[in-house]
Structure formats: C-alpha cells, structure tokens
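User: Predict the structure for this protein chain, please.
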Amino acid sequence: MNACFKSDPLEMCMCRCKVMATSHMFTHKVESEGRPITNQKSSGRCWIFAALNVMRLPFIKQYNLEEFEFSQSYLFYMDKIERCNYFLNKMVECAKRGEEVEGRLVSFLLHDPIPDGGQWDMIINLVKRYGLMPKKCFPESYSAENSMRMNRILQSKLREYTRELRTVISKDGEESSVVSTLTRQMKEIYRIVSICLGIPPETFTWEYYDKSKAYHKIGPVTPLEFYNEYVKPVYNVEDKVCLVTDPRPNNAYGHAYTVDCLGNMVGGRPTIYNNQPVETLMNITSESIKNGEAVWFGCEVAKRFAGKLGIQDLEIHDYKSAFGVEVNLGLTKADRLLYGESLMTHAMAFTATTINVSIPAFPAWRLKADFNIVTLHLCLIYVLCLLYT
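Assistant: Here is the predicted structure, written as structure tokens:
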C-alpha cells in the first residue's frame, strides 16, 4: 500500500527479471522498416498508419528512397465522408426493418456513429476507390492529428440526421424523399469534413530525390492512377486476406464471419474475418517476415503492456506478488471476449521475429507501432487479425 501510494500500480508490479531477460535482437526481420517514424497523435487512425507503413516498405525499395510517407490524412478524409454515408444508409436500413431507436442495435450504433478506427477490408475499399498520394501532397491538419472535436461535430449531426431520416420514413416512406434527404445531409457532411481536414487535390505532381540524389518527377497524376501505376505493382491490397483467431465455442475455426453494420462504404467490400487457430496466424506471420514482408495486424494492447520499455509480455507485471491475486489470466481468451475483458484496440505491423528453439510455440515478435517499436513475448493470446498473400 505504501509503495502504491505515490506510484503507478503497473510500474510497481514491473517484473525486473523479465525486463532483464527481454532481448530486442531478432533472427528474422524485414529489410527496412521505413523512415521517417510516423505518429497518429491524438487520433484513432492506427489502422491507416499501420497499413500505409506496411505498403511503403516495398515502395521505398522499388524507388530507392531514403524516406517516404503516404498521406494518412488523405485516406482519413475519404473514410470520414464514406463512413458518414455508410452510417446514414444503415440507419435507413434499420428503420425500414423495424429496429427501434431504443433497441440494442440502433442504440449501440448511435453511441459512436463515426469512430476513427477501422478494419483491413476498409483499407481495401478506400485504396481501390480513391488510390493513394504522398504525404507531401496532402499533409496533416489539426483535426487529422486531433480528431476529437471534428468527430463530436459529426456525431451530433449524424444523430440529428438519423432522427430526420426516421421521421421521413415514418411519414412519407417514398424512396425519392429519403434519397433527397440523404443527399442534402451528405453535402453538409462534406462541407464539415472538408473544412476540418482540407480538400485533397484531384491531381498532384510528386517530385523527389532517390538515394543517389537523382531528381525524379511523377505527375500530374490522380491518386487512383498513382496507386494503380506506381504502388499496386509492388503492393496490391487485394492480394491480402484478413485472418482472425476467435476461440469462442460458437465461432468454429475454418469459417468466415462478418459483423452486422460494420463497414465504411456503401456498396463496398464487407468486413470479413477468416477464423483460424492462433498457431496458423503465427506460422503465416513468421513466413511472411522471413520472406521480407511486414504484416498488418490488430491486437489488444492494454493488458500486460510496459509502454515505457516497449515490451508486451504476459509475465511483465507480477500482480500476484503485489496484490496476492492474478490479473488478466483468470479467464481464457474465449472467456475474455465473451465477458468484455478483451477486444482489438490497436493496429500495428509485425516487422521481425525470433523463433525460440526451447519454446517453439511462443516466438518473440517486433512490431512497428505508428510512433515506436515494441517487443512482444508470449502475448499472441491477444492477437485478433493479420493479413498475408
């Protein structure tokens, strides 16, 4: 009690011997992790940052660059507009199928109508429709780096629009009335997002020096042309699949699953999870890294994480010695998912691994977060999804 009086409980529980035993050296790693280090700042864009960090590695190699970033703000802009449209159309769909506002589904969706977070299939939707551009051609804005204020404005408008749409459907019911209401609402959404994030250019010209200091110029080109002609040949997002490890008894391995009302684009690719044992995910990830390709993934990072040291390990905190009870380990992963103790909270990229000969089932991993490097040991119990060709 005295030790915890002026100290962080997690810092107090730090296991010294585990810290000393942690090695940041790896037997297999991707050739380059990309420069500069990226930072999502006060936003929930980790899924965009992680995806673009994975995509830029073969792009940097192909064009012999010292450093490079794709514009995270560009995909964020497109996602905000598309996701608002997706949400409003889902509200129309829910109203037409008799879902009550006070019901669990609509209440849950209205709680956070426009979150920053996303899934791999959402990345595919955005890149296929809108392409990519260098960060220099569409840099960060305040609301991209600090999205809370913009999101609150959009949340308020989307809830207001939901009430308006439900009123139109209950009083009129004509499809033309619903469409005209949606069109007007989306014009207002476009204005809000454009003011906060800026309007991306329809075409751009990218000038750069390669490692040999030779000058190059690409453009004028549209973002979609840039992706199709210069990025897709070295990294095709459609060649990837999203795997998940969900051990809950009702979700059998070897099957594909989706989540109702989870998406970001009307008419776009649905969010699909291919459920496989965690051993399959680890094996595929290891093979990908051995072949020089980083792996996008999402996991739970709030548990057993020593942020200052960059270590995530099931044994990094010795709760038993401090409190006389174990924490986080009293439930299986299936139980944690069922009882709300665990969920995917952050997307990152695996860039290195070491297969432990003495414990082959538990390799160590190096992951690239959007602002630092973290080492994971024995913690893939929390891994939820990754992608691979």
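The first strand starts at residue 28 and ends at 29.
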